[in-house]
Specification:
heterotrimer; A alpha/beta (282); B mainly alpha (294); C mainly alpha (225); B: 294 residues; mainly alpha; MetI-like fold; 2 domains; C: 225 residues; Methane Monooxygenase Hydroxylase, Chain G, domain 1
Chain lengths: 282, 294, 225
């Protein structure tokens, strides 16, 4: 699959993994089409005995925003976190099924979770900048991941892409905690895209923000989707409708329906989907 | 609204009175401790202030000629002892806390270890002295040297450091760790760059408390056989030594009044080392805390 | 919030249906007035149109209000859009009925009797179409919606016939020209009512399936539903 021209950083293959792939006798069995960035295959995620995600299969298309909606506890955050293996921090979680990214199973031996998270970044619900300066917030991850280019340029570029640079250019070395909630969240977005990931996972990024900050972030998502594939979990259906190209509806761990956003919101196929989006339940 | 159902009986006056009584009780309790401290210090100052002079600091102790006795050897012994104790106990203690909190799985073994550490914090210091004697002095053949004393003291204060450090690490919000992990950081990178710096004030508090305890402990040092009349300054870790607590203990034991004055003077010297040390540590902690707003 | 909104939606739909009933009534009376050249009835029809106009405005306002305040999606959105469109069509139908009544006021009996046959047939068909459409709208049944436009061709054929009849007969009797024109106008309005009823049918298909089937031939419309 054609990889976009990026810095050395985002190649993301450790030497060993690269060799393993090259030495495979036949073409990789999990090869994805040029359009699909992530394929979820029959994924089940359990916390102990409880199955939070049940046998979910879906494709995430490149350079698009895919929204995952559903009532609380339907498993959408779990599904999202499974994509970059953030579920690993929960000791009781187990995973069955596959998630294919770059033709290899994310939960297989060919993907090191630390490598994976460089290419699949995440923005959390509550802004969580590091207790450091704005500059160091953005520059830290590239530095520890071996970035050899000009850090100042990278920081500026990331902050510009996150529509934050103009507001903070005079106080790059001040504490990130001095920013407002909306600015902090944009800083977290800048921090994530500083690594030039392929995919950006966003877990209810606006739920802790006021409507104006929310609107700015939605605008931002519109712009960055030209460069990054975005998967967005939201409990705000109108936000999914405004921002996404495709929408997936989950209920009680199962994927009920996934389709073009316009279709989901004008004529969904499943009764349950219609009931949810018209507020008949949830 | 006033004049509504009479099911509410606010009794405001009574509640306020109770509040006042409670706050007064708390104030009295704090005052109690503070007053005792003041009384003790004043007493010590009264008894020994006149005896603290340059000669006192420069001379070696002497039973024959009390007026000429000094605490030079004790001061240096204490300094050597505490330095080495810090060098051993702080890295090991903090590293243990980091391991237990960040790396160890939360299984029965880990919980067992943690329980034991908590218990060890309460073990009487003389037990550490006996342990030090058996293991460091005899088994490791270190003899009753500074290094043996430092190792025993390290064991004594390590539980305190570990517990305080663990509390400090636990207090770092998990969201910071998640953020670092989501950026492709290994666990070590996360701990080193974000968790430890954030936990530093708490860790330093633990270290301050631990060192304050160590600097005044006589029992373990006596057990391992520190000497009382030492007319030399230790030249290395493998040298014999004495320390201020021991000197104080010895002088207090003697019937003659003059030795009590000497003891009081030595206590003043000990405080004179301890308080500035703590002040520096507290200042460092405050400076670190100010640099970063939580 | 939702139970309240569902209730309001329901209310709106029923109000729209009542207006449809009213319009059906008016069409029936207009046809009767035309066929019987009943001037009194014609005047009544024209008066009743005022009620339709005012209802149309109110229903539209309420629809816009619900859309703004409740941001409906899915089935609810389609219902509100349909109400808006049907509202419009119903008002036009009523206007056509008024036009028929206006003509009826001028017509005299003999002229009408010459063409009563075709007009009568058209009127019957048109009223049936309207009934089918309104029923489909009430039950939200796409099938019913399709049945409406299958009858449209018959009405068009009758209208064609009427034109031929007038073209043939008028040159020979120039003194009856006014009458001919009136009758032609009545037929034209009936044909337009049929078209609007077809629109309502298409709207109901959209309501049920979300497919917009306008401007297509009958077969593909049926396929979509």
């Amino acid at each position: 699959m054609a990889e976009p021209a990026r810095t050395l950083l985002s190649k993301g293959l450790s030497l060993r993994a690269e060799e393993l792939v090259r030495n495979q006798p036949s073409p990789a069995p999990d090869a994805l089409s040029a359009e699909t960035v992530i394929r979820v295959e029959n994924l089940t995620v359990r916390y102990g005995d409880f199955a939070a995600v049940r046998a979910v299969s879906m494709d995430i298309s490149a350079q698009q925003v895919t929204a995952i909606i559903g009532p609380s506890g339907c498993g959408k955050s779990t599904l999202l976190r499974a994509m970059n293996r953030m579920n690993d921090v929960v000791p009781t979680s187990t995973v069955e099924g596959k998630i294919i990214y770059r033709d290899r199973d994310v939960y297989g031996p060919l993907w090191d979770p630390v490598e994976l998270r460089r290419s699949i970044g995440m923005v959390f619900q509550k802004p969580n900048p590091f207790p450091k300066s704005i500059y160091r917030n953005v520059a830290w991850a590239p530095r520890i991941n071996g970035y050899r280019g000009n850090l100042d340029e990278l920081v500026e570029r990331s902050l510009r892409q996150a529509a934050l640079f103009d507001e903070v250019k005079d106080k790059l070395h001040e504490s990130a905690y001095a920013l407002s909630g909306g600015q902090q969240q944009r800083l977290c977005i800048a921090r994530a895209i500083a690594l030039e990931p392929d995919v950006l996972l966003m877990d209810e990024p606006c739920s802790a923000l006021d409507p104006i900050a929310t609107a700015r972030i939605e605008e931002l998502i519109h712009e960055i989707k030209r460069l990054y594939t975005v998967v967005l979990v939201t409990h705000n259906m109108q936000q999914a409708a405004r921002v996404s190209d495709r929408t997936a509806f989950m209920y009680m761990g199962e994927l009920i329906e996934v389709d073009d956003t316009a279709l989901i919101f004008t004529k969904p196929n499943k009764r349950k989907t219609n009931d949810y989006i018209t507020g008949r339940f949830g | 609204m006033s004049g509504e159902t009479s099911l509410f009986v606010p009794r405001l006056a009574r509640r306020r009175r109770r509040g006042r009584i409670f706050s007064m009780a708390c104030a009295l309790a704090s005052l109690f401790g503070f007053v005792f401290l003041v009384v003790l210090i004043l007493r010590v100052l009264y008894e020994g202030a006149a005896w603290v002079n340059e000669d006192f600091l420069r001379n070696y102790p002497s039973t024959i000629n009390p007026p000429k006795a000094g605490v030079k050897s004790a001061i240096w012994g204490t300094v050597w002892l505490i330095s080495i104790t810090l060098l051993i106990s702080v890295p090991v203690g903090v590293a243990s806390a980091v391991y237990l909190e960040e790396y160890a799985a939360n299984d029965r073994l880990t919980r067992f270890i943690q329980l034991n550490i908590a218990n060890l914090a309460g073990v009487p210091s003389i037990v550490y002295g006996i342990l030090g004697l058996a293991v460091f002095v005899r088994l490791c053949r270190l003899d009753r040297t500074v290094i043996a004393g430092a190792l025993s003291l390290s064991l004594l204060i390590m539980p305190v450091i570990i517990i305080a450090s663990r509390e400090a690490l636990v207090a770092v919000p998990r969201s910071i760790r998640h953020a670092a992990v989501a950026l492709g950081a290994s666990r070590w990178q996360t701990v080193r760059a974000h968790v430890l710096p954030a936990a530093l004030p708490g860790i330093m508090t633990g270290v301050i408390l631990a060192v304050s305890r160590a600097i005044g402990e006589a029992a373990p040092l006596l057990m391992i056989g520190a000497l009382t009349y030492v007319a030399f300054v230790p030249e290395g870790p493998r040298d014999y030594f004495t320390a201020l607590p021991i000197q104080i203990y010895d002088w207090c034991d003697r019937p003659q009044q003059v030795f009590h004055h000497l003891a009081a003077a030595a206590i003043i010297v000990l405080l004179g080392i301890l308080i500035p040390m703590n002040a520096v540590a507290i200042t460092l902690r405050a400076w670190h805390q100010r640099r970063r707003i939580w | 919030m939702t139970a309240h909104f569902v209730h309001l939606l329901d209310q709106l739909h029923r109000r729209s249906l009542r207006m449809a009933s009213l319009v059906e009534d008016i069409v029936e009376e207009a046809c009767e007035a035309a066929l019987d050249t009943d001037k009194k009835l014609a005047r009544r029809v024209i008066k009743r149109d005022e009620e339709v106009d005012s209802e149309e405005v109110d229903i539209e306002a309420e629809t816009v209000r619900l859309m703004a305040l409740y941001q409906p999606v899915g089935g609810d959105l389609r219902l509100l859009c349909t109400v808006l469109k049907v509202n419009n069509d119903l008002e036009r139908i009523a206007d056509c009925a008024v036009n028929i009544a206006e003509r009826a006021k001028h017509l005299d009996r003999p002229t009408m009797e010459g063409h009563a046959g075709i007009i009568g047939q058209m009127a019957t068909l048109v009223r049936r179409m309207l009934r089918t459409a309104v029923q489909a709208y009430g039950t939200r049944n796409g099938e019913g919606g399709i049945n409406v436009f299958s009858q449209d061709d018959a009405v068009d054929a009758l209208y064609g016939q009427m034109i031929i009849g007038v073209v043939d007969g008028a040159p020979g009797r120039p003194d009856l020209m006014a009458g001919y024109l009136d009758v032609l106008s009545i037929a034209k309005n009936l044909e337009r009512i049929a078209d609007h009823a077809s629109n309502i049918g298409e709207d109901v298909v959209f309501l049920e399936t979300g497919q917009i089937v306008r401007h297509r031939d009958d077969q593909s419309k049926a396929d979509e539903s």
